[in-house]
Amino acid sequence: MRVSGRWFVFSILVGIAVGIGAIVFYLLGQMVVRYSLGEFAGYMPPVAGGERAFFGEPDTPFRPWMIVLVMTVGGLVSGVIVYWLAPEADGAGGNTVIDAFHNRRGVIRPRVPVIKTIASAITLGTGGSGGQEGPIALVGAGMGSWLGTTLGLSHRDRRILLAAGMGAGVGAIFRAPLAGAIFAGEILYSDADLEADVIVPAATSSIVAYSVFTQILPQGTRFTPLFGRELHHTFSSPIELFPYAFLAVLLILAGILYVVTFERFGVWFRQLPIIPHLRPAIGAALAGLLGMAMLYSFGGDVRALAVLGTGYGTLQQTLMESAAVGVPLLLSIALVKIVTTSLTIGSGGSGGVFGPSMIIGGCLGAAVGLAFHEIWPSVVAEPESFAVVGMAGFFAGVARAPISTIIMVRALTGDFGLLVPTMLVTSLTFVACSRWKLYRRQVPTRMDSRAHRGDFIVDVLEGLKVRDVYEQGRKIILIPEGMTLDAIIHCLAENNQHYFPVVDAQERMVGIFTDDDVRSYLFDDSIWSLAVASDVMKSKFVSVSPDDDLNTALKRFTSMNLDELPVISPDEPGRLMGMLRRKETITAYNQKLMEHKQAAAEG
After folding, report:
1. CATH code reported for the domain at 5-447
2. Is the pTM of this model over 0.85?
3. Domain assignments of the chain as residue spans, ordered by start
4. Which single residue of 151, 275, 470, 508 could bond 574 by disulfide (Cβ 3.0 to 4.6 Å)?
5. 453-602: what fold?
6. What per-residue confidence (pLDDT) applies to 423?
7. What's the confidence (pLDDT) of residue 451?
């Protein structure tokens, strides 16, 4: 993509919109927590070191079983809102964005960001196990898509704004603009590929969104990492890599368990013989019951409730002093968090998968660190460092995003001393988890994406001109701009032409329409004699000249998903010389490719 001034402006607009959206999402989530869990259950989940509560503490005494009721009601309200108004806003949100990029020309309905904001705030605020990245990614992507549609941009450009919005949302809510930009380009693919065109727009949008979002935070914490500034670990000896490699093995097994459980619960909920509106309530109730089981199993220790909500408070203590949490509780949180997240999101609840992945990876890493500290204290002196590495390694494997995850965890913790072990663990989990991924809509590489259909054959077409390919003697029916719709319909019925150029009195082309454009009028014969060709045609059309090469032609085919392009005379503007068909271009490509293969074989 050629970076220009207009993209700078577009990216700033997306960043401002997403930054404001992140503020609304953040405050709404806190408000729901305060006036649902806080008011009725007397429970305010502890937050990360860099977060602050905006709505105060409740006076209600702690009533654990009310948490289950609040979660059930929250799941019901969220489910009704989502499945009534925007069913595509259910679940994690990341899959919806990835699918829109690859398969829907970057289109997300304008109502989706609004519905996702409300539903996610309710799901997470009432105790549903999930993260913030999925919802805010969909909210940001929806804003980028809406702006691209409003500005009349091409499908390709709208996809870029969609991805920029996604990156801006993640960069703002986690205060990690660089990670948000890389995440936007990396999360679209499951193999080691990157959507390079979105990086610069996403970086600009992330910086702006981050700057806007941090204005609501207290002055002293605006640029504080989510988990504070106190995390400073070091990597001192290559021998430490052996315990880290063992951690990677456990993270791989846990990642496979997470993906399989997540998918199985999703299938199970979709097969329930009830309306989908009720499924999130069932998932939330079951997750709440598991939370109560954890609470009472550990003698009322509220840290066990990290299996509900975001769990950031318990993770904060794990990162600071994992020995105070203990191996049994850490392992239990990691395993049960897999189930509660699968219940919450698999049932259609609105939340992300990155937050739970941090809890699972962090707690599992801390447990491994504590175990090695007991048996090998001379090598593993800081068990908490394993929690930091575990956070990155776990999500990198199941989300197929190693680079952005390393940057993200570094930004969240402010801890930059563990780069080498983090790279080792994320590389191992990324390679080993290739068959298991949380984002089912990811495609392996750009070559597998419909967004790049045709991008990888243009080099073969260099040197071929449009004049060498299009059928110059083919008879094309021209439609006068004053021809009535009645006559057009009869004309369509008598031939197999698909694209119809519209010409003025001097036979200069002024527009074009397809038989699909006319079909919408077939059931209203009252306007057949009133409407004319100029009412049906598209006056802004894409064309080529005989001197254009097929690289240019193919880009215009793919940018608008067209099957034919008008060939216009460069010397007489508006004079139609013929129509270039996509299949003719592909035929020329195949022929040229065979020539290259034969030349290579002979050489």
Report:
1. 1.10.3080.10
2. no
3. 5-447, 453-602
4. 508
5. CBS-domain (3.10.580)
6. 94
7. 83
